[in-house]
Amino acid sequence: VNGKLQWMHVVSCAQLTFYGQHARRGRAALEDMKILPNYTGILVHDAWSSYFKLPAQHALCGAHLLRELRGLAEHHGQVWAGALRESLRTAYHDLKAGTLSPEGRTAFERRFDELLEEGLLANPAAPPVPGRRGPTKQSHGRNLALRCQQHRAAVLLFLHDRRVPFDNNQAERDVRSWCVKRKVSGGFRSEEGGRNFARIRSYISTLQKQGLSVWEGLVSVFTGDVLMPNFNP
User: How far is 150 from 224, CA to CA, in rounded Å?
Assistant: First the structure.
């Protein structure tokens, strides 16, 4: 935006889309957009630290986790990460196929915990650096294992609540229009232009999701009788 980096945020579900542009990525942006700070439902996300401060019930994206585990296994030789990735994929596909029994779920969760312990053993804690303040930087493998332990319920929520998707691909799909915009024009000349684009795209995306005519919606904006989507689908 005018030559400076800004962030595009998306909050979406199968029937609604909200886009917001902001100079910040974290808490300040979420508060300015006035949606997530008041949301107490289920929020599927990528474990960005600012999201955990929200009042929502958290679920972590399995696709992000699978990518991280694959990177650790293939590029760093972390055997536990490869085993956890395969166990997670198997549990997800069995659940999707309706073949994951209660006993199978319990066995998977036990295996999940065991592999995380293996991950911590394979990535021992780095000792404090003399004279340096603050926490010591840990390896990616250790941080991932600790995150999965700390947020175990959020990682595995898809197993226990069928409303929860395994990933946040809905948001990823909704981001694509912005990626096209960035590829074509490189950005915006002003913050106002970016905010206007976000508002227009939010309206268009929501109309499309609800099977309403985008053409009729845009015409209605200029005729003063705005076609409103259903905000309680």
Answer: 51
